[in-house]
Amino acid sequence: MALTDGAPRPARSPVEPPRGSGPAWGGPARRHLLTSWRRLPRDARDTLFLLFVIGWTVLPHAAHLPVWCGLLTLVMLLWRARLTLSNAPLPGRWTLVAVLAVAAALTFWSYRSLLGKEPGVTMAVVLMALKTLELRARRDAFVVFFLGFFLILTQFLYSQSLLVALMMLVSVWGLLTALVLAHMPVGQPSLRQAARLSARTALFGAPIMALLFVLFPRIGPLWGVPQDGMAKTGLSNSMRMGSVAEIAVDDSVAMRVRFDGPPPAPQTMYFRGPVLTRFDGVEWQPLPPRSLLALPPLLLDLRTSGAPLRYEMTIEPLRLTSVPLLEAAATAPAIEGYRVTGSPDLQWRADKPLSERVRFSAEAFTNFRHGPVEREIGLQDSIALPPGYNPRTLEWAAALRRDPRYATVEPGVLAQALLQHIRTAGFSYTLAPGEYGRDSIDEFWLDRREGFCEHFAAAFVVVMRALDVPARVVTGYQGVDALPLDGYYLVRQSSAHAWAEYWQPGVGWVRADPTAAVAPDRIDRARRLVPAPGLVAGAIGNVSPELLARLRNGWETLNNRWNQWVLNYSRGQQLDLLKNLGFRSPSWEDLALLLTGALSALALVGAGWAWWDRHRIDPWTRQMDRLRAALQRAGLHAAAHEPPRALAQRVRARFGAAGEPLAELLGALERQRYSRVTRARPDAALTRRFVAQARGLRESTG
Fold it and tell me: 293: burial class by Cβ within 10 Å (0-12, 13-18, 19+)?
């Protein structure tokens, strides 16, 4: 894509197909050209290549931008491609102004503002697509390039995954290739050569990029964008019937855990999230913050036995402040950038949502008791039931209490009676139980008896409360993948789980998992229900289930290493690197000195390269110097600015027929140097023949 420098439009826009190319662009010939990329004019191919790169750059944004923005961008890119292929004039300025006004109005309608991350990215996408419709000169192309690089950066406000990084790397390569084409004459170099040059240029800059990544001091962001990196799925701070089942169909990774020793048994791996005590008949919610005073770890009323289980955890971005630690943690984990405190319900909360990936070390006691051993006022919140809801379940519980066998028994016996009822009364565990009505507990417990973990946990808690036993719902994750990947056990969103706790005098809060009564494999072996696979995954799975598992495990291993070594590269790792390099007590001053020294060394290497490159002689220039020297010895002064064609004319004028062989060799050199089929190096045989002919001419003319 060769573009002009000047503001006035040239007679023919260099980014458009040549006008006046005649019938070759019309009718059947046009359809034929559309099927043959090689037969398109070079400038048309450059424009289509740039449009493809723009589409590729915008593609990842389609998931978080309004539908109208994606459609409008697609229409404008296709419009520009059609104008390129049909050699039609570009639209007028007022047409572009009208489209821009419509886009701004739609942006304001979508976000109620033109300021902020989402509106800004939306308008940037529209502006880049619009700019292609007035792509007439090099300055217009530069605007498109810079907008493209800007959109590459904005993509990382939404996702920093390995897949997005690879896609943006391709975008950078494509934009650099288009930038190279914009600086070259029409037809030189080819698209393949420009792609190689841009790749080589990017590789030259890679060492500096890696050096800055490793040694540049890790500091907090200078500005904040609300909800950057916030998870779109995962646990919520409330629960309705079916809400956990919606999460369970998501097989993405929620956490990665690496244990210092052997992993605990699957039935003990409960990662505690929000504790839901309040129930309004439809939704379960936690108690208000004023009812859960943040306490130091020693006041959590946690009683442990045995040695702690130490582990390292990497948590993907969450929508919550709850830190889903393995039960039960006695001390707060140290998470860089967050302050974590405990509360009486054994939750650990950060001072702000975990909106970025975090990695930390923690410890847990799998043998523990917690909560008050004597009945107290605070337990009344865990007995309350909303009036007017689920009357048949309450009557069922009253009938159970009237049974002489359960009239005066302790809460533990009642809990076992309910679990036995779940085992024997025909309950089924399913991801698709269907919609439940207003009295959802009645319908589940007494009629349909089909549900996911939240149905069982909620019904268990309601019945226990109806029996005057304090109980509550706990949400989080349960179990890990059977085999570790790269040393880490994966906890997926599909491991999201809800269980129950009831209070027993003299003991405190006791975990009860009704799901284990109906689906023991879900807890004992962490075998989750999974939805039907998609078309491609299903086809691969039918051919080779092991292949599908290996592909997924390999990709998740790469993702884990990307997360650990790139996204989670922290200040602590920088200082550890200095220790490995021999610094006994590394500090930020040492890091700055090392970075300065490394950059200075690279600058010296670059200066040396520039000096050497400056004194290198292009092989074509070297050939012309030898030819001019031969002509000088033959008696013809050849100026440095004269091309081979001009020298051939002077040779004929000076030597006549005797100089014809030299003139023909100069003509051959002209054709080799400036033909469409470029040569990597000049013809050495031609140079030798020329020198020999010039020597013979000098001897003959004496």
Answer: exposed
Kind of pairing between the strands at 302-304 and 368-370? antiparallel
- Burial bucket for residue 579 (CB in 10 Å: 0-12, 13-18, 19+): exposed
Are the beta carbons of 311 and 361 closer than 8 angstroms?
A: yes
SS3 content of the chain, % helix, strand, coil (to 5): 55, 10, 35
Burial of 630 (0-12, 13-18, 19+ CB in 10 A): buried
Task: Give the Cα separation of 74 and 103 in Å (integer).
Answer: 13
Residue pLDDT, tens place only, 508-559 = 999 999 988 888 876 655 555 555 555 444 554 555 556 666 776 677 777 7
Q: What is the pLDDT of residue 188?
A: 56
Q: How do residues 159-179 score in pLDDT, each as one tens digit? A: 777 788 888 888 888 888 888
| φ/ψ (deg, to 5) at 491 | -110, 115
Rounded to whole angstroms, how far apart are CA atoms 308 and 54?
Answer: 54
Q: Would you list the DSSP string of 591-621?
A: HHHHHHHHHHHHHHHHHHHHHHHHH---HHH
The maximal CA–CA distance of the chain, rounded, in angstroms, is 136
Burial of 186 from C-beta contacts in 10 A (0-12 / 13-18 / 19+): middle
pLDDT at 657 over 80: yes
Q: Are 7 and 62 in contact (CB under 8 A)?
A: no
Amino acid 533: pLDDT:
53
Per residue, the 3-state secondary structure of 266-318, as one string, reads HHHCEEEEEEECEECCCCEECCCHHHCCCECHHHCCEEECCCCEEEEEEECCC
Number of helices (H) and strands (E), helices first, in the chain?
23, 17
Neighbours of 32 (CB within 10 A): 11
- Which amino acid would we find at residue 376? E
Q: Is the separation of the CB atoms in 334 and 313 below 8 Å? A: no
Q: Once rounded to an integer, what is the mean pLDDT over residues 240-256?
A: 79
CA triple 38-39-45, angle to 5 deg: 65
- Residue 540: HSE in the Cβ half-sphere, 13 Å Cα cutoff: 11
Provide the residue type at 569 as one letter.
Y
Contacts 24+ apart (CB under 8 A), 690-694: 690/626, 690/627, 690/630, 690/662, 690/665, 690/666, 691/626, 691/627, 691/630, 693/661, 693/662, 693/665, 694/630, 694/631, 694/633, 694/634, 694/662
Query: Comparing 24-33, 415-424, 427-436, which segment has the lowest mean pLDDT?
Result: 24-33
Give dist(CA 558, CA 556) in Å, integer: 5
Q: Which residues of 268-278 are buried (b: 16+ CB within 10 A; e: fewer)?
A: bbbbbbbbbbb
In this prediction, residues 14-25 reach a mean pLDDT of 40
CA distance 488 to 565: 14
Identity of the residue numbered 493: Q
Mean pLDDT of the region 423-452: 86
As to burial, measured by CB atoms within 10 angstroms (0-12 exposed, 13-18 middle, 19+ buried), residue 89 is exposed
Q: How many Å apart are CA 177 and CA 197, to the nearest integer?
A: 8
Instruction: Report the distance separating Cα 593 and Cα 589, nearest Å.
Output: 6
List CB contacts of 250: < 8 A, sequence separation 6 or more.
Answer: 233, 234, 492, 493, 494
Quick one: which of 495, 531, 434 has its CA closest to 234? Answer: 495
What is the pLDDT, as a whole number, of residue 242?
A: 78
Question: Would you state the pLDDT for residue 677?
Answer: 63
* DSSP per-residue codes, 564-587: IIIIT--HHHHHHHHHHTT-SS--
Whole-prediction pTM value? 0.59
Round to whole Å and give the CA distance between 663 and 667. Answer: 6
